[in-house]
Amino acid sequence: MRVRYTRGQNLFNVFNLLFLTALALAMFLPFLNVIAQSFSSSEAIINGSVGLLPKEFTAINYQYVFSDHAIWRAFGVSVYITVLGTAINLIATASLAYPVSRPEFVGRKYIVMMVLFTMVFSAPLIPNFILIKNLGLMNSLWALMIPGAISAFNFFVMRSFFMQLPQELIDSSRIDGCGELRIIINMVLPLSKPVMASLGIFYAVGHWNTYMSALYYINKPALWPLQVMLKKLFETDDISIDPASSVYSSLAHTSPEGIKMAVIIVATIPIIMIYPFLQRHFVKGMMVGSVKS
Known about the structure:
Blueprint: H1 7-38, H2 42-47, H3 60-67, H4 69-101, H5 108-120, H6 125-134, H7 152-163, H8 167-175, H9 180-191, H10 193-208, H11 212-217, H12 226-235, H13 247-254, H14 257-272, H15 274-278
Helix pairs in contact: 1-14, 3-14, 4-7, 4-10, 4-12, 12-14
């Protein structure tokens, strides 16, 4: 059946479409300019003639990036903390959110209040630094994954989702002889793919963009993630690889701007590619038909 909109609704839809289109262009056009600069020559970038399309097309900037072992090492560190850190986040958040979502769990209100307190009043930098140092996590990648294992906001989102699971499913599983662990693995987690996918992306983006924590707790350049490496490239123009006599090294010292833009693209594309694979899980509705009354 065709839906008929009123004049006011049509006007709102047109305004909403124009607003969202302008907002999307405001976010996409700068990114398109970065892509164009990454494929442009150093002379075109210095002259400021690069717009939305590359000028004097060249791929030497990416050849430099893919030849720099330091950038690849930082890329590997970012992948490592993103994959392992996201897994730790989801396991820890689900382990806390599921028990306090069940009505039979005694004391769940007090735990929720304590988590809410950490959400409103977060610990300052110096106590966090002292804690990380006393735990022996300095100059360790665990310092980027363990302290923020559970996000208070994501905890409440996951708890709300678990609370919507029909109690009849849990009770029927217990009648069939399933233990709590088996209920979680075989019943709760398969039905929780939408919230797991959504929060997994939030956690993964946070780990991939890790900068401040790495700057505070990591002093070894070999353990710097990609975002810290990118910031170091923008702070100084001292970009070089071995051997120093290579054509890439001379390119880096003459005009590093194209190399910086290429590193930005390399740091951005992987996390963007995750969204298409998890998009289908964003649509809720997996509970339809799971309970027959």
